[in-house]
Amino acid sequence: MENKFDSRLIVLALLFLLAITTYLLKMKAEVVELVETNTETESVKVHIQIPKFRNTYNLNFENILNSKIQEKVRNIVEEIKEAAHQAAKDGILQTKYEVYISTEVKFKSKDFVSLVIYYYTFTGGAHGITTFDTYNIDLKNSNFLTLEDIFSDTCNYEKTIKDFITKLVISRKEEFFPESVEYINEDDITKRPFTVTKESLQIYYEDYEIAPHSTGLPVFEIPLSLLKPCLRIKIN
Question: Exposure of 78 by Cβ count < 10 A (0-12 exposed, 13-18 middle, 19+ buried)?
Fold first, then answer.
């Protein structure tokens, strides 16, 4: 009976070690992880969730990328903290100021990562302000990619994207500014923020750029099936 019990313990211990080893190997292989911190004072509430790159081909590029993201976040947090401190000093701080930074990883492989970081700040008033940065990174060659890098210029991908977006805007015209279709058609789509998933291309517009705040941040998802002949990179 005792030997049987000992055997079970050994099996459980081996399974536990296997699970830990699998987890550690997976973590070692990950090229990006999300790091989260929360702090709160009498005047400011801060939530930060940002990507941290690691295990990439180029350590120097990895450090530059992480520093770039961290510096942007640090500047935003310091700006809001300073504003809250001044408001408290002037006796006009009625509610806590807020910084809420979150990240959505849209695509991840050892060679390519696509993600968006949202920066929400609230300093009183009717609503806060949300801005964002998109990152499309060729980790193998240590480059930041644009739409021109991802799609071939021999294919009229710009027209395909614009036609898809304007069709959606027209179908929901009550949610957008009257001049939004003209704005989209005249805009240089190759300079527009974007991310990529396995299924679609996401095109981003800023708050109030083509629609009122009540619409939310306009993000349009164009199926990659419409753009597949134009793709320069492999997404799977």
Answer: exposed
Evaluate whether 190 touches 158 at the Cβ level (below 8 Å).
yes
Instruction: Say what the pTM is.
Output: 0.86
Using the structure block, give the residue that is written with the tokens 């058609």: 185
Architecture of the domain spanning 146-235: Alpha-Beta Complex (3.90)
Q: Pick from 34, 41, 192: which is nearest to 101 by CA?
A: 34
Superfamily of domain 28-145, CATH level 4 = Fervidobacterium nodosum Rt17-B1 like (3.30.565.40)
List C-alpha distances in Å: 175 to 93, 188, 228: 34, 22, 30
The domains of the chain are located at: 28-145, 146-235
Q: What is the pLDDT of residues 64-83, one digit of tens each?
A: 999 999 999 999 999 999 99
